Amino acid sequence: MNQHSQRMTLIATVSLAIILMAMVAVMLIGLFHDKVNNDKVFEMLSPAFQTIVGGFIGLITGIKIGQADE
Fold first, then answer.
1. Are the C-beta atoms of 41 and 27 separated by less than 8 Å?
2. 15 part of a folded domain
3. Is position 6 within any domain?
């Protein structure tokens, strides 16, 4: 069971890293593109960014607490 928890933690961590890199790339494209209104890009991505980060941190924390209970 411990190996399963470690694998799930790794998958969640890699998924979070990929999503965050993609979101940062979109923000950078929006920041430096002349036709894009920067206020709209950040207004749209900020809540999504916070939700995704919070959800994954909660998932990883839950897995780690579950490991400690065993």
1. yes
2. no
3. no
Unique residue bearing structure tokens 């919070």: 54
One-letter amino acid of 32: F
As given in the structure block, the two tokens for residue 69 are: 């209970």
pLDDT at 13 (0 to 100) = 83
pTM, rounded to two decimals: 0.64
The range of the structural domain enclosing residue 66 comes to: 32-70
Write out the DSSP string of 33-52: -TTS-HHHHHHHHHHHHHHH
**Alpha helix segments (H runs only) across 1-70:** 2-32, 38-69
Count CB neighbours of 6 within 10 A.
12
Q: Which residues contact 1 (CB under 8 A, 6 or more apart)?
A: 70
In residues, how long is the chain? 70
pLDDT (0 to 100) of residue 70: 60
Find where tokens 């999503």 sit: 19
